[in-house]
Amino acid sequence: MAFDDPNMLQLELQAQAVSYSNIASGTAITWNVLTTIPQQIQFLRRADRWTIRIGYVIIRYLPWLLQLGLIPENLNGTTGLHWTRDSCHVWSSVQAAMLQVIITVLDAIQLLRIYALFSRCLPLIYVLGVLFIGEIVLLSVVLGKSFIHSETNDSCFLTGLPRLMLAYEVAPLVFQVIMFILTLYKFLEACRDGWGDKPVVRMFITDGTWAFTTLLFMMLLNFVLSNMQHGPYAGICSAWILTVNSFVRCMPGDADSEEVVTMSKPEVELDTLPVSGLSLPVATFAESEGFE
């Protein structure tokens, strides 16, 4: 196909590059899911609470299903279909709603992590709960208003977002920073008390640091591109954020290992946790009686 307008040709080439990037993202998450099936089954069998199973399924499989749903749109930068403005906004809203569910579940898991680490400190949880609810309300409002004024091309590729979307990108980042600081504080306290070298503690802090730094990089990159680019490149990180969320929150381990560690300090109430396997950040919660 020949393009008389150089700008139109540039936009089409950008859309094609974004489509290839999205397909690579979908391939990566598909490979990761399919190659860790034994660990996934093992984790779901070991999880003794239905909330853990539901959270895991959402984090692990919802990004994957969304990526699979995007494949037809990502083939060579176009679906081959004609999108009206309304139909494109509906499809974009569905994607945004699924992303919102994923973010909400991830933040809820972080809250449960803090709930366990801080020995069920209710005042702290109440404060964080208010921030959590405020974040959900803010993101829902911003998301609804931003996608109404978003810019897309004829193939329904995102080409621009309003400035209001800044709040959508910053709010989860701020909440994650707070969760990370609290986790780091508890780890330093553990080191001071002499049990910072325990495998279960290292697992918690490693998961938190890995997840935070990786997502921080992706969110900052997405923020820079969405605010500096005015073409398809503005949304090139969106699919990768979904993939990274699934990767860093459900990291595979040794499916055959049955090693467990029981903590004896009452200051941090963690149940007996599997050291290996799929280390979802809040694999097991504290029991009211603490440790044996």
Topology-level CATH name: Rhopdopsin 7-helix transmembrane proteins
Question: What level of helicity do the residues show?
Answer: 55-70%
The count of helical stretches stands at 8
Tell me the major beta sheet.
2 strands, antiparallel
CATH architecture: Up-down Bundle
What number of domains?
A: 1
Q: Uncertain spans, ≥5 residues at pLDDT below 50?
A: 253-292
Class based on secondary structure composition and strand pairing: mainly alpha
Give the helices and strands as they follow along the chain.
Answer: HHHHHEEHHHEE
CATH class: Mainly Alpha
Cα end-to-end separation: 72 Å
**Strand arrangement in the largest pleated sheet:** 1-2
Oligomer: single chain
Q: Using the CA coordinates, give the radius of gyration.
A: 21 Å
**Averaged pLDDT:** 72
Q: Please count the beta strands (DSSP E, at least 2 residues each).
A: 4
Q: How much strand?
A: under 5%
Basic shape: globular
Characteristic key phrases:
292 residues; mainly alpha; Rhopdopsin 7-helix transmembrane proteins; two-stranded antiparallel ribbon; 4 strands; disordered C terminus
